[in-house]
Design a protein that fits this description.
By secondary structure, this protein is mainly α. About 90% of the residues lie in helices and about 0% in strands. The chain is flat, with a radius of gyration of 14 Å. It starts with a helix and ends with a helix.
C-alpha cells in the first residue's frame, strides 16, 4: 500500500466517523463497535 492510498483511506474513515457523529449521534459507530466485540468474543471461543 502506498502512502498516498493509506492517507486517502484514513481520511475516508475519519470522514465517515465524523459524519456519523454529526448526523446520527454516533449510533452507527456504536453499532459497529458492539458487533466487533461480538465477533472477537466468537473468535476467542474458537481459539
Amino acid at each position: 500500500m502506498t502512502n498516498k492510498l493509506a492517507i486517502v483511506i484514513g481520511l475516508a474513515v475519519v470522514g465517515a466517523v465524523a459524519a456519523d457523529v454529526f448526523l446520527a449521534d454516533g449510533e452507527a459507530s456504536l453499532f459497529l463497535a458492539r458487533k466487533m466485540f461480538v465477533l472477537l468474543d466468537w473468535l476467542a471461543f474458537w481459539r
